[in-house]
Specification:
By secondary structure, this protein is an all-beta fold. The protein is about 5% helix and about 70% strand.
Length: about 260
């Protein structure tokens, strides 16, 4: 998005509650609220909004640490200024989570999203249906080595011209190795964002598409069982197939200190 690096604030509040009924059934309910505020007055008039979601899932245990579940989420997006792209979404899902094999654990999920916009715009449908997926797997390659694989497909609010949303597909693969309190990590990723709704900017018209390539390395050191520090570097590069002005290169360095009690 063209405002990805604009100064803004996002306040998020979330809560969830999980319980089990007997030895075979498990349930979870949750709620999430996000408030987006842009510091630039022009962007704030068009993009300030809140997003809320209420969700729940019900599962049956196929094994002590493996659960098959169905889920439902009700989400809404409301713009607080001039933009009128308010929407409501129903999401239905099914998935598998927990210990999948002797070496693989994680979560597999597929879903169907049905979104309705409050206002009808010329040439744009009021109702849209999307398929979404989520894969988050860990593979225990050795006693000190672990690999991860994440795949996702979902819809996001768009801030580009008249486009109301974009579909994002992403893959990330990583590896971590621990030795005497030190953990070395590395990962690589690819993401493609596609805008199904055609738009015009200047003399260019069409459907925008962005491809983002990324890679990163890091090191973490556990000083105590409750205290650790970390250092990481990542690089992301975006190629935009609409206008070159949306392409960028981002280098990020981070230093962290984590304590748990």
């Amino acid at each position: 998005e063209q405002v990805a690096r604009q100064r803004r604030m996002m306040n998020e509040t979330a809560a969830s509650f999980a319980w089990e009924a007997g030895r075979r059934f498990a349930f979870t309910i949750g709620a999430n609220h996000q408030l987006h505020k842009y510091l630039d007055p022009t962007l704030a008039n068009n993009l300030n909004r809140f997003e809320a979601a209420f969700s729940g899932d019900a599962g049956v245990k196929l094994a002590p640490k493996t659960k098959l579940f169905v889920s439902y989420s009700r989400g809404l997006v409301h713009y607080s200024a001039g933009r009128r792209d308010h929407s409501r979404t129903h999401q239905f899902g099914v998935g598998l989570s927990g210990v999948l094999t002797r070496r693989i654990s994680g979560r597999l999920q597929a879903g169907l999203n049905k979104r309705r916009y409050e206002n009808t715009l010329p040439g744009m449908p009021r109702d849209n249906t999307f398929f979404s997926t989520g894969v988050d797997l860990k593979y225990k390659a050795a006693r000190r080595t672990e690999a991860t694989l994440r795949l996702s497909r979902g819809i996001n609010e768009a801030t580009f011209r008249t486009s109301r949303y974009y579909v994002s597909n992403a893959v990330n693969a990583g590896i971590a190795h621990t030795w005497r309190g030190l953990t070395l990590t590395g990962d690589a990723s690819f993401q493609t964002d596609r805008y199904p709704e055609s738009t015009t900017l200047g003399s260019v018209s069409g459907n925008r598409r962005d491809d983002i390539y990324g890679a990163g390395v890091g090191i973490a050191y556990s000083m105590r069982s409750w205290l650790s520090t970390s250092l990481s570097y990542s690089r992301a590069q975006r190629y935009s197939f609409f206008l070159n002005e949306f392409a960028y290169v981002a280098n990020r360095f981070s230093l962290g200190l984590s304590a748990s009690f």
